[in-house]
From TrEMBL:
This is DUF427 domain-containing protein. Residues 33-122 form the DUF427 domain. Signal peptide: none annotated. It comes from the Bacteria. It comes from Arthrobacter parietis. InterPro entries: DUF427, DUF427_sf. Residues 1-20 are annotated as: Disordered.
Length: 164
């Protein structure tokens, strides 16, 4: 495979030290989502899901989204760990990002704390920030990982990484 694990520096985490199956943990910092030129969510109650080879996926309480920004759409996908995902378009002003947010209405055992939270693909938003740092989107279009200076890879998602 030729995977060369990056060594984390002080204050960093390696995604290769994250567990499989994934772990959910509270995140005490400030998470902000911006879309359509507006701040659509701000929270200090985020959670993050940590899974081997993936940057963290941040989940924001639905109650912390601006009213009217989430529009449920048809269709679901299945996560082997968390269960059935339900999708939303994110809308702010005249901007719409189709199927850019998701939730688990009835997460499977071990992931119940995700109930009532929403994740977004950071690459489909104007900006996502974690403690004032602008997030980079995980490569590829399948995963919704948030890359900050606090995590090192390599990260799954780019072409050629599906077999990891």
């Amino acid at each position: 495979m030729g995977i060369s694990r990056e060594k984390p520096g002080p204050g960093q985490e390696s995604v290769w030290d994250y567990p499989r199956p994934p772990r959910v943990e509270n995140y005490p910092g400030v998470v902000v989502l911006e879309f359509g030129g507006q701040e659509i969510a701000r929270t200090q109650r985020a959670m993050r899901v940590l899974e081997t080879s993936h940057p963290p996926v941040f989940y924001v309480p639905q109650a912390d989204f601006a009213p009217g920004t989430l529009h449920r759409v048809d269709g679901t996908t299945w996560c082997e760990f968390k269960g059935a995902a339900t999708y939303y378009d994110v809308v702010a002003g005249s901007a719409r990002a189709e199927r850019s947010a998701w939730t688990y209405l009835e997460p499977t055992a071990g992931f119940e704390q995700l109930t009532g939270t929403i994740a977004v693909y950071p690459g489909r938003m104007d900006r996502c920030l974690v403690d004032n740092e602008v997030v980079q989107a995980q490569p590829g279009d399948f995963y919704g990982g948030w890359i900050t200076s606090k995590v090192v890879g390599p990260f799954k998602g780019a072409p050629g990484t599906w077999g990891w």
